Amino acid sequence: MKFTALTAVAALLMAPAAYAEADDESLVINGDLEITTHTDAPAHLDGHLDEIYSGWHFRDDETQAMEADDFDNPAMIFVDQARDMWTTPEGSEGKSCADCHGAPEDMAAVRPVYPKWNEDAGEVRTMQMQMNDCRTNRMGADAWKTDAKDALNMEALMSSVARGQPVNVAIDGPAQSVWEQGKELYYTRTGILDLSCASCHEENYGNRIRSDHLSQGQINGFPAYRLKNAGLNGVQGRFKGCVRDTRAETFSPGSPEFIALELYVASRGNGLSVEGPSVRN
Amino acid sequence: MADGVKPRVKAPKSAAAGESVTLKTLISHPMESGQRKDGDGNIIPRSIINRFTCDFNGQNVIDITLEPAISTNPYFEFDATIPEAGDLKFTWYDDDGSVYEDTKSVAIG
């Protein structure tokens, strides 16, 4: 961390800008895959944020380093498990993912654009919803619950093959009304603590809360391997945790509210690289 | 044997004679405590790794005792001096009698 004694004194003397504690290091995975972890905010954030930072910038040096090498990244265990599942036939049709989709690497264009409007179904779908559509309609298998272990493993695989590509979620067209609903939720204060997502992740990122370093709440790194529970964590499960921390009744993972919020929060990271599966504390 | 156990080792393919190289190992393993029950109420048998060793051409490099509080998916990183071309053999011993192995060859050059 580039935090010399001099800047430490300066930080004490004047109120630092909100983003002062996002470090200025850069992330290169496996020595050759450059990850955009800091860039200009997308146009729809005008007046809210000038720059967007991946949550990677807000973690300790040791945690950051774990993500720079696939061998050191514990999430890759789950990616390996998903790779095995990718070629294993399941369900009444006897099909595996690979039978239709080929190699996981052929799916690299998927993760950056999800959640995405599905014309046939007339709804915004997260990647997990789309996987379940495959499982129930094409494979004849049971749907996964939202953020179930297998679903997160598969999401991690889809994310790992898309690393380095910019997140590019569509917010116009038919998805716009859902996006607006997500935005509404993002700025709505909830709970006994009367906090909205923006209270922490827009107005106070870089500061500390609950002895933790507040990030911008970007989800380009999801699913995230958290050191605290030694497993993959899904976006909507994290939303639930955040809403709970405001001491409110939460929405359920998989609910329309969280799907809308996932679309909106994903769009706040348009321009950052897909980074998942990331390592966080 | 526990499900989903997969040893992984990262070792250089070649080294200079006498060079010290860094070895990284990670084994995915659930470390079942033996106190949990499955959906039918039957106890899931204990399965915890209690020992990890690394040998080079039959000579021991490192021998580690793992206590039952070891985390899932334990990671070890250590250095070893490579005197000659040969095989690094990595072995994990499980409480339930299973032995997990991986071997990496190192050339001199």
From TrEMBL, chain A:
One of its GO terms (cellular component) is periplasmic space. It catalyses: L-cysteinyl-[SoxY protein] + thiosulfate + 2 Fe(III)-[cytochrome c] = S-sulfosulfanyl-L-cysteinyl-[SoxY protein] + 2 Fe(II)-[cytochrome c] + 2 H(+); S-sulfanyl-L-cysteinyl-[SoxY protein] + thiosulfate + 2 Fe(III)-[cytochrome c] = S-(2-sulfodisulfanyl)-L-cysteinyl-[SoxY protein] + 2 Fe(II)-[cytochrome c] + 2 H(+). Its EC number is 2.8.5.2. Binds 2 heme groups per subunit. It is found in: Periplasm. Heme c 2 binds at C197, C200, H201, C242. Residues 81-167 form the Cytochrome c domain. The active site is at C242 (cysteine persulfide intermediate). Keywords: Electron transport, Heme, Iron, Metal-binding, Periplasm, Signal, Transferase, Transport. GO terms for molecular function: electron transfer activity; heme binding; metal ion binding; oxidoreductase activity, acting on a sulfur group of donors, cytochrome as acceptor; protein heterodimerization activity; thiosulfate-cyanide sulfurtransferase activity. Substrate binds at R238. The keyword Cell inner membrane does not apply. The keyword Signal applies. It is an enzyme of class 2 (transferase). Its cofactor is heme; heme c. Heme c 1 binds at C97, C100, H101, C134. Residues 1-20 form the signal peptide. Belongs to the SoxA family. NCBIfam families: thiosulf_SoxA. Heterodimer of SoxA and SoxX. This is SoxAX cytochrome complex subunit A.
TrEMBL record, chain B:
Residues 10-103 form the Sulphur oxidation protein SoxZ domain. It comes from Sagittula salina. The gene is soxZ. InterPro entries: Ig-like_fold, Ig_E-set, SoxZ, SoxZ_dom. Gene3D superfamilies: Immunoglobulins. This is Thiosulfate oxidation carrier complex protein SoxZ. It comes from the Bacteria. The lineage of its organism: Bacteria, Pseudomonadati, Pseudomonadota, Alphaproteobacteria, Rhodobacterales.
